[in-house]
Amino acid sequence: MNIHPQAIVSKKAYLGRDVDVGPYSIIGDNVKIGDGTKVGSFCVIEGNTTIGKNCKIFTGAVIGSIPQDLKYKGEETFLEIGDNNIIREYCTFNPGTGEGGRTVVGNNNLFMAYSHVAHDCVVGNNCVIANNGTLAGHVTIEDRAVVGGLVAIHQFVRVGKLSIIGGCSKVVQDIPPFSTCDGHPTRVYGLNLVGLKRAGFDSKVISKLSHSFKILFNSGFSIKNAIFQLEQEKDLPQEVLYLINFIKSSSRGVCRGIK
Question: Which of 35, 105, 196, 240 is 20–30 Å from 161 (CA)?
Fold first, then answer.
């Protein structure tokens, strides 16, 4: 363990093996940091915050400060961050709001500088949140999603797995899995072909997803009728069934295709 003499680390905090804490950083009472995690200079980590193994936290990050929610009245809430995350300069992460509320971040994510994860968010694994990406409260980001720079995501929105959102987009409805989206408000432009190929998707599955996207977002059908059309087809791959179920379970509605 390597704690800089000008860092302040509570005696009540738990730091694993080979943890580094840089100068002028502050680690609070209830913080737990896993083996091999590196904390840069001028960072503040507080609250009921747990950080996993081998994370890299850069200058000025503020992690675990109370939620930016006027309803919050000091309840005991939590922030859980997994392993191998990279949290760049001046990112902010808040715990949940309401008694027992949790913000949960998975593994192997990249949060670029100034990105914000608000209260009660859930971020999966292998995601990228680019510079100034902003997640409002109760946002869910599924695995391997990419959120572009300066993107603002509304409360309670879900971002489907292996989707990508273009920079500066305004996201007020759910982002379908496997999609490329952009705009004010955000619209579906098509499949995230690059992401699917990098993830090793079979060409037959990609072809079926492409066909499904055309029916769902470019056919002129309502979403309800488009789903009905798709469900009449035989031997739908699991990825298409997942897409259909994602849309059916959406409480905010999904982004529509471009006109």
Answer: 35
Q: Of 20, 83, 120, 174, which one is the catalytic site residue?
A: 120
Active-site annotation holder among 20, 83, 96, 119: 119
Contact status, residue 86 vs residue 109, Cβ threshold 8 Å: yes
Secondary structure letter of residue 72 according to DSSP: -
Pairing mode, strands 134-135 and 152-153: parallel
What are 20-69's pLDDT values in tens digits?
A: 999 999 999 999 999 999 999 999 999 999 999 999 999 999 999 999 99
Q: In whole angstroms, what is the distance from residue 9 CA to residue 23 CA?
A: 11
**What would the two tokens of residue 15 be?**
């730091």
Domains within the chain, CATH numbers bracketed: 2-141 (2.160.10.10), 197-248 (1.20.1180)
Whole-number average pLDDT of the chain: 97
User: Does the predicted TM-score (pTM) go above 0.70?
Assistant: yes
Concerning whether 120 is annotated as a catalytic residue, the answer is yes
Q: How confident is the model at residue 259, as a pLDDT?
A: 73
User: Which residues fall within 8 angstroms of residue 245, CB to CB, at 6 or more apart?
Assistant: none
Residue where the block lists tokens 């840069």: 40
